[in-house]
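Section 3.1: Structural characterization of target chains.
Under the original work plan, the team committed to producing a structural model for every single-chain target entering the pipeline before any wet-lab resources were allocated. The record below documents one such target. The sequence was received from the expression subgroup and is listed exactly as submitted; it comprises 266 residues.
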Amino acid sequence: MSDFLQSMAESSTERAAAVGELPQADKPVVPLQLGDFDVIAEIKGRSPAEGDLSSEDDDRAERARQYARGGAAAISVLTEPSRFDGSLEHLEEVVAAVPDTPVMRKDFLVDPVQVREARSAGASGVLLIATMLDDNKLRDTLDCAFEDNMFVLLESFDENDLARVSKLLGEASYADMAARDLLLVGINTRDLRTLAVDNERLATLAPKLPAAPCVAESGLRSAEDVADVAAMGYRLALVGTALMRSDDPEALVKTMRRAGAAKVAA
């Protein structure tokens, strides 16, 4: 595990240990509804690689509504506090703003209790990073999410990660979750050792994508980028920085969705 991931794992472990008694989840799980090609639109205050992405007067609720009007299949909210300026309060704010759109907690989760914490805050999905979790912990955390019908975006960085995920999907129970759009497989192009984007990773790993809805993550800034990954076999794009910096995120989500769907249909 890289130094960055190790530091994220250590701080996340501390946060998991500090989770107290959780309130009963009183917000419904909003099901993920996928089409030919979809966008998961992200809200984050800061990126270690890109710097500040929002200002003090940035309106997260209105941005989430713009994403939803653009047709985002889900909204990803960064909740990691030390490097991304995130919090669970941000997630709760977005959930309240877009009650009909599933909201995903994006963080460096290391324990099932953090999935339950996300559900209590209203999340309908969570991101998990394969390389941060051993096989037993990964299963426990996945199963915790699926018990509540939450979707999981399971993220890989390299062939080893993807081989582990593909092996998991060889089991009937997890294959069923993928068939029901509850288990998505993500490929992140950002190298978490250097925080640089490897633009070739999506193409390199495309022939090894498993039978699941697959998500291209990081470095996608335009409709042309999205069309390219759709041609490789990806059926969703997770887009953060480009949308956070866009003057019209609603239009950009629409344009990206159309570009991806057109390429799938071609």
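The chain is about 40% helix and 15% strand.
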